[in-house]
Every structure is written in C-alpha cells, then in structure tokens.
Amino acid sequence: MSSNNNLCTRELTIQNRLGLHARAAARLVELSRRFEAEMTVEKDGQSADAKSVVGLLSLECPIGTKVWIKAWGDDADQAVAAVAALIENRFGEE
Amino acid sequence: MNLPPPFVSKESALTGIAASPGVAIGKAYLVDRSKIEFIYQNLISPPLVEEEVARFKGAVERARAQLEQIKVGVPEELAAHAYILDTHLLLLQDKLIYEAAIDLIRKERINAEWALRKAVDQAREKFARIKDEYIRSRIKDIEDVTERIIRNLVGSEQESLGSLTERVIIVARDLSPADTSQMRLDRVMGFITDMGSRTSHTAIMAKALEIPAVVGLEDCTRRIRTGDLIIVDGLAGHVIINPDDKALEFYYGRQRSFESYQAEIVRTAYLPAETIDGHRLAVMGNVELFEEVAAVIDHGGEGIGLYRTEFHYVSKRHLPTEEELFEDYRDMTQILAPRPVIIRTLDIGGDKFTSALDLAEEMNPALGLRAIRFCLKETEIFRTQLRAILRASAFGNVKIMFPMISGLQELLEAKKILKLVCRELDREGLPYNPNIEVGTMIEVPSAVAISDILAQEADFFSLGTNDLIQYSLAIDRVNERVAHMYEPLHPAVLRMIRTVVQAGHAAGIKVGLCGEMASDPVCAPILVGMGLDELSMTSLAIPRIKRLIRMASLSECRDYVQAILRCRTTVEVNEFVREVIVRRFSEDFDFLAAARAV
Fold first, then answer.
1. Across all residues in chain B, what is the average pLDDT?
2. Are the C-beta atoms of B347 and B404 separated by less than 8 Å?
3. With contacts defined as CB-CB under 8 Å, which chain B residues touch A62?
4. Partners of residue B512 on adjacent β-strands
C-alpha cells in the first residue's frame, strides 16, 4: 500500500480535439499504472480512478474540460508530472 | 385499468402486459444477447471463495493470451486499428471490472460469472448516463471483453447450467422456444420481457408452467440488473424493482390470497363441465412438453386437445428419429388412455425457430413455408412423424390433426401420405389404429370460407384462433405497435367461429377450439353459446373455465351469442361483455377485478 503522506494535485485542461476518449484514456491508464501512487482524475466534483479506463470514460471529458489530477504516495509527484505532460501534449495526437 | 401499484415510487415500478397469473418475488437474472447461460451460485466456505477467485483470474489470463494471439495475427494494413485490441487488453484488468468482480466474489460469495456480470451491470449503469454517444457506445467493448472471459469460465465447466442452486426470475428482451428449451425451468420463478404480447411464446410457456409472467415491458432489461430483488405481479402486469418492506408485505399477502383462490378452484376441477341445463362440453389441455401432462390431469383436463410437437425439432441439433418420437407419443398416450390425445403434426416455421432444419430466412414467415406446407414439401420428415403417431395409436386414444390447412387439396394430399404410411406399417406388421380420427385445424381464413367442403373430408375441426385472428385481422401479434388491435372479440372473428361450428355440425363432426380464447373466462360463455363441443387450453385455465361452464346455462349463452352477433364493432362487443357477462359471473371475476383495481 502506498502511504498517504505525500499528496500532489494539479489542475489541467483537456486540449486534444477528441477529448478523453477511449484511446486517450487507455494511454493515461497505461502511464499511471507505471507508478505506485494512487491517482484520481476529478471533474465537477466527480472523481474517477486514473488506473481505470472504465472510470475515466464515464467521467466524460470533451476538449476544454478542466480536470484535477490528484495522487497519493511516494512517487505522487512524478506520477502527476507524467500525466500532466501527456495531457498537455494532447496525448500525442497531431 | 392498470393503475400503478401501491406503496412504491414511480421509478421502481414498471407496467407491462399481464401474461401469466401469479405473484413471484425473487432475484432477477438478466439473459442478455450474448446468449451465454450461466448460473447463480452461493459459495459457502472461504476456501471455495478463493478457488473461485483463482478460477476467475485464470479465465482472464486465458483471455489475455487469446487477445495477444489475435494481435499478432493482425495484418499490417490493419495495424492502425490494433489499438482496439490494446484497449481490450487494458479493459481485461480494468479496476472497475476486474477488481470489482474479485471484490464481489469475496464479499458476496458468489461465483465468478455472476460477479463479473454484476460488475459489468454497474459499469453499464454509469455509461448509460453519458451524453457523448461515442463514449457511451464504448460499453460494447467492455461487453465484448466480458463475454470472452465468461466464455472461458463457462467453457471449462459445461455442467454449470444444470446445477443451478438458486431460483431466479428471468429478465430478457424476448424469449424464443430455443432459449427456453435450454433453461432449467424448475429453477425459474418468473419471466419478464421487454417484448411480447399475451399470445407470444413466453406468455404461452409461462401459463403452461404456471409461472407468473409480465411481457411487453419495453425496457426492463435496461432497468434491472442481475441480482436485483424484484416482484412480478402477473395478475396486474406490474414489476417492482428493489421493493421496500411495505411493498414486500403487500405482495406476499397478494401471493398468498392468489394461491388459496387457485387451490379452491383446483379442488373442484374434477367435476364435469356441464351447464345447469345439462349441456356438456369436453375441456382439455394444450401441451408442449411431456412433463405438462400431469398438470392437465390434476387440473381436471379430459384429455389433450392440442399436443404441439415442435419441441423435439427445436431442442436438438439433429432431427428426431422415429423411435424418439414414437416413445414420446406412446408414453403420453398410455398415461392418458382412455382419454384422447390430439397430436398436431409439425407446425414449424412462423415464429418457431429450428436449428436442425436450416430454413432459408423469409420476409414473411407467418405467410411462408410452414406447417402443412412445409410437411408436404419435406415429405420424409412428415412421414417419420406420421409413422410415430400411428404406431402410438395402438396404445390408446390418439387423433391426428393437420395445422394450417388452407384448401381441400392440402388436406387430401396429407391424407394420401397418411394412407401410404398406413400401408407401410401393414407390410411391416406394426400395429396401429386403422380407424384413427384425422382432423384439421381451422386457422386460415380461406379454410373458414370452405369449412363446409373441408367438413366432408375431416373427422373433426379444431379452431386455432391465435393464427385465425392474426391472419384475418392482418395483425402481427408479436408486433408491439399493432398488438393492441389483436381482438379476439372482433365481430369478424365471432362470425367466422359461428360459420365453422355450423359447417362442422351440418356434416356431423365435432368442432373444438384450441386458441388462447378458450382459456379466457370472458369468452367461455360465448363459446358455449356458439355450440363448440370441445375447448382446449393451458392446464392452469381448465378448472376456472369448467367452473364457469357449470355456473352457466346453454340457453342464456345462446342469448348472449344472439346479442353479440348483432354488435357492429369490438367496442360494442366489449361493452356487452362488460355489462352483461362479467356482471352475471361476478363471483368468478372478483379476483381479476381485484387485480385490476390495485
């Protein structure tokens, strides 16, 4: 179990044209699974596990959506940084 | 007429068509399109639970290997689409599916298939709320992956369906004879379906088995999840999802009072169906399965007025052999002797599905190659069945009935084949009843028009009103949009029944009726007045109909018919029925009236 003492959060905007669709969600999950930290993506008070495609898809985040990334655990900082890079990089689309 | 039931909030109550009476309270089991059948199991001991988790993980692992294999085989030009497989691989172990299922196995101590189905149902609910159509449709990917896992789980344990440990209420879009033939029916407490009408297969099957059913609910499969507690009120056509204590208490009470009413009716079932002025009718049972015969006798049936013989043809992958059919027909004949068994020859086609005979798809199956037309074309299949029926006739009172006769030519051809088969049996020295009665169903409007001609060649008539109504009113009884126009009391239908009875009696043959109408208490006095000699129906209805006939007199029933034949519209007929017949027999209609007032 990861410890809860290291919390890292960051607000980001989904910028890719298709939003957080299946392929993007899959990439996000693949990435976040490489980290020990527990991670969630939040939108309008709803929260989804960043390691679940099903959860991310059900959040429904089209382009322009503001989301909060939260991570707990020893490598929380690195995890958030990596996910932030992916989102800002428009999931490598175009 | 169908007011919402008491005590429940609107969103948890659904209203459909009351298809089979009774009240069932129990766990829902969603039969989805993938058609993979599995069962609910309660795992009592902790070691079993961990074994189940391991079994689940193994199935997921196999699914992973299968997907990897598929991925390797993807041709280069489609490589860009291979990401779908990657998504599926990810979904295999998605937290909300994989871990949720494992959690459910441990916490609820249920088997892997059930746990996985439940986890997916939860995800489906989440996805249903999504506005984006593309993302919403991703549930399909989840279902594909789940199906793969379940196939792996079930594939290794084929016997699972036979070892059902808990009784369930089946929730489905629609059920075909092929579906129900695979079910352990003794584990089914109730049926509810999105589609269907009072005369569709589910309704007929449920009534015969005395299992409460509500059909035509439109979206029950979307609202109910496997494992939900539901109440099926087959009297009023209501379904209550996750009821509160008050509703439960009410429906348990309703269940008890219906059962005691039934018991009272059954106690007097052995008495003959004789009117107070001494006119006696034969009341018989319609059956599809050998197992239903006992219920017919228990309910006071005086024989089998319609034995539907399609089951042997739809339940197996191969065509039944003569011996298989013969043994089945002989057993039924012997059990019932000296009571009659009217065996209807194969009525395949139409809404009946067949797996052994790979029939070409037809645009209009109800008007296509079915029943006697099919048999006159596939004469080998027909002859095999006729041989089996004739051989069984040596063991009791068997009669043959041809379905869907539309002209004299067909009847003559069928009788010619029957004669040839008789000669075959003579040559082989096999015993049969040479004086076997051969009747015809009257279910095509053309047969009504020439019923005087047919009566010269038939030993008896049996009105198949389900199809007759459908064909003469041009109403597809399973099409929800027009099902409400399927009117048994349409003046045209009533006139056709009278025509057939008169033609039959003029030729000195008996006329029976084996459609759903025969089991409708509202119709019983009318059918008595029409002069029908025999009514054949689902066993459950027999005691009630016999009791009604015992309360009536032939002379009053004739008066009703006189009045009804003057009605110009179904509305007028219904009004007469409501004002006169229902009032006259109010004692017997009380229970249904109470059901409607709820």
1. 85
2. yes
3. 132
4. B462, B534
pLDDT average, residue stretch B4-16: 65
Are B354 and B489 within one domain? yes
> What is the DSSP annotation of B295-341?
HHHHTT--SEEEEE--HHHHSSSSPPPHHHHHHHHHHHHHHHTTSEE
Per the CB < 8 Å rule, is B87 touching A22? yes
Comparing alpha-carbon positions, the chain A residue that sits nearest to B139 is A54
Report the pLDDT value the prediction gives residue B585, as an integer from 0 to 100.
84
Q: Using the 3D structure, point to which of B132, B160, B188 is the last residue of a domain.
A: B160
Report ipTM for this prediction.
0.77
Give the range of the structural domain holding residue A35, as residue numbers without chain letter: 7-92
Shortest Cα–Cα distance, A79 to chain B (Å): 18
* Whether residue B207 is found in the same domain as residue B147: no
- The residue among B163 and B194 whose pLDDT is bigger is B194
Judge: A53–B94 Cβ closer than 8 Å, yes or no: yes
Whether the pLDDT of residue B395 is over 90: the answer is: yes
Q: Which domain holds residue B126?
A: 46-160
pLDDT above 70 coverage of chain B, percent: 86
Residue that finishes a domain, picked among B262, B287, B305: B262
Q: Which residues of A are catalytic?
A: 21
**Looking at CA atoms only, how far is residue B122 from chain A in angstroms?**
11
> Can you tell me the distance from the alpha carbon of B441 to that of B457, in angstroms, rounded to the nearest whole number?
13
If one counts the domains in chain B, the total is 3
Q: Do B135 and A60 touch (CB under 8 A)?
A: yes
The confidence score (pLDDT) of residue B161 equals 35
pLDDT tens per residue across span B405-450: 999 999 999 999 999 999 999 999 999 999 999 999 999 999 999 9
d(CA B171, CA B190): 9
Which residues of A fall within a CB distance of 8 Å from B83? Answer: 23, 26
Do β-strands B510-513 and B534-537 pair in parallel, antiparallel, or remain unpaired?
parallel
Q: How many domains does chain A fold into?
A: 1
Instruction: Provide the pairing of β-strand B238-241 with B13-15.
Output: antiparallel
- If asked whether residues B405 and B510 sit together in one domain, one would say yes
pLDDT in tens, B132-156: 777 777 777 787 788 788 878 876 4
Q: For A3-7, B39-43, B252-256, B408-412, which range has the lowest pLDDT when averaged over its residues? A: A3-7
The torsion of the CA quartet B378, B384, B390, B394, rounded to 10 degrees, works out to -170
Nearest to A52 among B95, B130, B141 (CB): B95
DSSP state of B317: S
